[in-house]
Amino acid sequence: MFSKNLVCHLGKNLRFLRLRQSLRQEELQIQFNLSRGAWSDYEKASSTPNLSGLLDIAAFFKISLDELILRDLEREARKKRHSPFQFDGTVEVDKWEFEYIRRELERLLVEIDTLKKKMA
User: How far apart are CA 108 and CA 120, in angstroms?
Assistant: First the structure.
């Protein structure tokens, strides 16, 4: 359906994403209602899902379609692992982590105020 150039990283990315989440091909075939061996064919790049399938897969793995088909996710993950000080300015936290951080900041502000009063 799509040209080989357009989806140059799709097969590798599908395998990388599956293994990163410790999933089996059979589990993904069930998840996406695929015929037997279809996921394997996607990973080997011998066939390609249609656009709707690509969008479903991207949503399942919580990535963009652009990331799924155009970027080498495994290489990018290796790069991040080897560059611990590289920071893109984005931090993802869930609401519990956010609440914990907020409470800690409030506690530290009170502590700073207390220390300032003692020094004055």
Answer: 18
